[in-house]
Amino acid sequence: xxxxxxxxxxxxxxxxxxxxxxxxxxxxxxxxxxxxxxxxxxxxxxxxxxxxxxxxxxxxxxxxxxxxxxxxxxxxxxxxxxxxxxxxxxxxxxxxxxxxxxxxxxxxxxxxxxxxxxxxxxxxxxxxxxxxxxxxxxxxxxxxxxxxxxxx
Length: 152
Hints:
This protein is of the alpha+beta class. The protein is 15% helix and 47% strand. It has one helix and twelve strands, in the order ββββββββββββα. It has one helix spanning 129-151, and strands at 2-7, 13-15, 19-23, 30-35, 40-46, 52-56, 62-68, 76-80, 83-91, 96-101, 104-111, 119-123. Strands 1-2-3-4-5-6-7-8-9-10-11-12 form a twelve-stranded antiparallel β-barrel. The radius of gyration is 14 Å and the shape is globular. The mean pLDDT is 86.
């Protein structure tokens, strides 16, 4: 299924039919992820060079994590509720990412334009909505990190 993102009136990112990604502050790398069914979690980047991210439910239980593979880009291992995925950076410049389960693309993310914050997603039907929101949040966070690094 194809999904798109749009900013809503509160500044949160709405993922069509899935839910919202709401940053907790203007400069924050922390966000609340909320599905249309009401499930929520907090996503947060940590680490000196921001090599780790986690999504935790309201009780502090980890739902999933992302760990960066190296210094060159944001590719890394994603663990989500017992499953191991790989997040691949297809192109940092154009903002294209793929969440892989073995050799299968579960989520493909693409920025709509070079300077755009909007994303389009191709998602397999059985993907957990919170995982979709986590990947959108990661893609947005990577874009913010890249812009900050370019600004010097």
